[in-house]
Amino acid sequence: MKIKLRSQLKNFLLLSSSNLVLKVYGEIYRILLVRRCGAEPFGLVGMVFPFYRLLVILITMGLPAALVRLVAIEQARNNPAWILEAKKKAFSLVSLAASIIAFFLFLYAGPLGSLLFNDSRTSVLLRYLALALNLNCLCLLYRGYLHGLNRIAPLVWAETAETVGESVFVVFILYSTACPGVERSAQTLAQGFILGELTCLLLLGTYDFLCIRPLMKHAVQPVVQGRLLSSLLNSSFPLMAQQLILSLSRIADGILLPHLLKKGGLSPTLAATKLGEYWGMATPILFFPVFLFSPLSTIILPATAQASVGRNLSLYLRKIRRLLGVALVYGLVTAGVLLRFGPIVSFLFYQTTAATEYLPFLLPALPFMVINQILAPVAEGLGKQAFLLRATLVMLLIKTGVAAAFVPLPHFGLAGAAWSVTLSQALYCCLLLRETVFSRTVTSKWFLLFHPKYLNGRGTPEQHSSILR
C-alpha cells in the first residue's frame, strides 16, 4: 500500500510540475506571438476552434474517458486480452469516423467558412484542421488508454514534446518571415498545431509498440468477454453527451451574456469591454488554483475504477473523504489569499485592477470547484456516467437561470454571472457528494439529493418502516 501511495504521489507531482511549466511556457509563447503578429490571427483561429472541438467530441464519442475506467478495471482483473481488443476496436471506430468527417470538412471548407463565420479566410484554416482531425482524435484515445494503464510519465513527455515542437516551429517560421500577414500567421498557427499532434501521436504510438504491447501479448490471455464494443459505447455515450452539453454551454454564454448586458443598458462597446474584463482577467485568476489541483483527477479516475472491482472500496472512499478535507482547506485558503491580494495580482498580470470587481463574487466558487475536481472522476470511476450527465444538466440550468435573472439588472451586471458560477458549482458539489462518498450504497441510483426509497410508494415493509423511523 505504501509503495502504491508513493507511486500515486510521484505521478501527481510529475503532472503538477509539468502542467505548471507548460502553462508558463505557453503564456510566454503566446506573448511572443502577439507581439510579432498581433491579435487578429489568434482571433481567426479562435473563431474556428470551437467548431473543431465540437467535431472532436462527436467523433471520439466519449471513448477516451470511457477507456480510462474500463482499461483500469480490466487491468485489475489481469485481463490483457480484453484491453488489447478494446483498444483495437476503439481506435478503428474513431479513425474511420474521423477520416470520413475530415474528408467532407476538407472538401466543403469554403462554403462552411462563409456560412458559419462569415469570413472566407477561415476556409483555409478549416482545411488545415481537417488534416489534424484524425491525429488529434487518436492522441486523445492514446491518452485515455495510457491513463487507464497508469502510465503517466510517457503522457507527460509526449505532451511536452507536442507543445515544444509546435511552438518552436511557429516561432521560427513567423520570426524568419520578413512581414507575416494576418492570413499567413493564422495558417502557420494551424500548421504548428498539426505538427504538435503528429509529434504526440508518433511518440505515444512508438511507446505503445515497444513497451506495452510486448508485455500484453506475453501475459496470460483469458477469454475476451463478448459484446465488447457495446460495453464501450454504453459507457462512453453519456460522457460524450456531457462534453457536448458543456461545449454548447460555452458557445451559448458567448451569445447570451452580451445580449443580457445590452438589455441592461450597456452599449455594445462597453459590453465587450466588461466581458473582456470578466472572461479575460477575472476568470483566469479563479481557474489558476484549480488548474494546479487538476492533475489529481487524472490519477483518481483509474484508481477509483480499480477499487470498485476490489474489496477495498470502503477504505478507498475514506481516503477520498480525507482528501476532500485537504481540498476544502486549500480552496478556502487560496480564495482568501486571492481576495486579499487580488488587486496586486490583477495589476501584476494585466496592468489594471479591473478584474477585482468580480473576484468577491467568483472566489466563493473556488472551494467547490476544487472539490468537484476530485468528486467528478470518483463518480466516473464508479460507473455513474448517467448521473454525471443529469447533474451537469441541472448545474447548467441553474447557472443560466441565475445569469438570465441578474445580469440585466443595472446593480448586478456581470456580477450576476459570477454569482451564477458560484451557485451552480455549489449545487454540483452537493450532488456529487450525495452520490459518491456519502452514499450508503455507492451502487444505488439517486435522484438529485433523494434516494429512490423516498420517492417510490412501492417497497418492502422493512423499507417503509425504516423510512417512518
What does this structure look like?
It is a single chain. This protein has 17 helices and no strands. The chain is mainly α. The protein folds into two domains: 2-226, no CATH class; 257-438, no CATH class. Helix 2 (40-60) crosses helix 6 (122-148), helix 10 (268-293) crosses helix 14 and helix 12 runs antiparallel to helix 14. The chain is globular and about 65 Å long.
Concise description?
The protein contains 17 helices and no strands.
Q: What are the SSEs and their pairings?
A:
Layout: H1 2-37, H2 40-60, H3 63-76, H4 80-107, H5 109-117, H6 122-148, H7 152-176, H8 182-218, H9 228-263, H10 268-293, H11 295-308, H12 313-350, H13 359-362, H14 366-381, H15 385-406, H16 414-435, H17 461-468
Main beta sheet: none
Q: What do the pLDDT scores average to?
A: 82
Q: Radius of gyration over alpha carbons?
A: 24 Å
Tell me the structural class: mainly alpha
Q: What is the count of structural domains?
A: 2
Coarse morphology: globular
Strand content: under 5%
> Which parts are unreliable, with pLDDT below 50 for 5 consecutive residues or more?
441-452, 454-469
What is the oligomeric state here?
Answer: single chain
